Amino acid sequence: MKNKNKENSDEQTFSPAEIESAKRTLIKMKKDIFKEIDAGIKEGSSKDSTEYRGDNYDIASSERDRELSYMLGDRERKKVREIDNALLKIKEGTYGVCDECGEPISKKRLKIIPYSNLCINCQSRAEEEEKKRMSEDYIDHLSTLSLMSDDETFKDSDE
Ligand SMILES: [Zn+2]
Known about the structure:
Blueprint: H1 6-12, H2 16-44, H3 63-69, H4 74-92, H5 107-112, H6 120-158
Zinc ion binds next to helix 6.
């Protein structure tokens, strides 16, 4: 009798304890991001209304979350989105499965990046594409800049 998927799935099966600890790590990571932002806000304004407790943080993005996410940088916002996605997958029982190809994400990888939603192959492909896109954006940006400076030079000489 053959059990084709046996070897792989054994290695990739998460025990409830592992899922629980991943979930806790994810929630903590998210809390830490928001705490940092919140500390920044508090420093700026010492209003009582900014007071909040992190202990009843949940998966659902509350009003507060949305409010705070405006204060996040692109990198943090992306990370929060990935964390939320991973938490959602825990809820749905698909944690550790690649969003892209549906293959299991290695546990080693999840240990380092618990919020990774892509396997190593899809991740590197996504990064390649992002790099490409970014360099295209950069070229766009450059041509916009040169257009702008052309314009300015024109104005300068006009004066
Ligand atoms: Zn994949």
